[in-house]
Amino acid sequence: MLGVIGKAFYPLAGHLIDGIRENTSIWDKVPGMKDTYYSSMYRDEDTLRTFMAGMFGLTYVSTQEAVARFDFGRFRHIVDLGGAPGAFLVGVCQKFEQVRGTIFDLPTVEKVSNETLVRMAIDSSCVGSLRFASENVRQPVAERTLREDGGSVRHAGGWQRS
Fold first, then answer.
1. How far is Cα 87 from Cα 55, in angstroms, rounded to an integer?
2. pTM here?
3. What is the pLDDT of residues 126-143, one digit of tens each?
């Protein structure tokens, strides 16, 4: 994971002072890096696979604390926007078996995300309760998905039952 992050950030670091001085984006200063941080990670499957495995590990550990403190069992379906490797939903459904989940992310992430879920999930029945959706990640799509499954929608103001 550090190697992947290093490949993305090391070339940018040499332009950091100029970017601050000029108040410009340093992404434009490095050939081939004009895209966002994440799209640079998605350039090839091996890099993406390494990144996803690292993100799974980091997210899964913090999710253990979240599931110990919050009752996700109140919800039947949770949508994780930008949830790529699915670590958050795996952690939730391992403790709350009745919870189902949808990972919404970019279409380029789906194949590696599904591979990561199968490889990293401790409980195969948990993976069976998750699905990946690669539509445009917008609130109305997430709301429609949740309402079809009788779930809840999280807005900035808190949870709302459908």
1. 8
2. 0.64
3. 777 888 887 654 445 555
